[in-house]
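Recall that a protein's primary structure is simply its ordered list of amino acids. Everything else, from secondary elements to tertiary packing, is in principle encoded there. The following example makes that idea concrete.
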Amino acid sequence: MKIICVGRNYRKHIEELNNERPISPVIFIKPDSSVILKNQPFFIPDYSKDVHYEAEVILKICKLGKSIDKKFAHKYYNKISLGIDFTARDIQNELKIKGLPWEKSKAFDGSALIGEWIDKNEFNDINNLNFSLKKNGDNAQLGNTSKMLWSFDELVSEISRFFTLKIGDVIFTGTPSGVNRVFENDLFEGFIEDKNVFNINIK
């Protein structure tokens, strides 16, 4: 299993981090060792003093595919959920200044939370889905998939140009605005519409 992540897919998130709007999806990969095991907390790594949460709708690939046409892309994922891309922002900023890859800040062990999977057909329109992240009971991030610069199908098609998609692969589709630092003893809850798909403690 590989985890393909998309950066800068929501305009307001691009603005809050003072990044440039990309002309094509920003793509990076997390290894399977980044996945947090079920019912385990997120442990703040000792090499970062500024880890941020980034809640994202995620897709589960159900069919082998390469160079997928956009009009067929919907056939290649059958389940969705919400995840968190934990990011060591201080390390990322240092790497960006030096023009170096982001992996140390994005792909470290335990940096990817995957919520409970839901059949996409349970929703009327996955391209107009509300999702939210609560931090200690308060809304931390609110998003809607209609606000993405690139839709699910466009992302699947674009990603498959470069990487063969395999059954079980996961795509993180980008985060809306509201990202911020995590602290020890925080509790995060993730929702797609009214469905609670994860709860995780910070240690």
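Residues 56 and 175 are 5 Å apart (CA to CA). The first strand starts at residue 3 and ends at 7.
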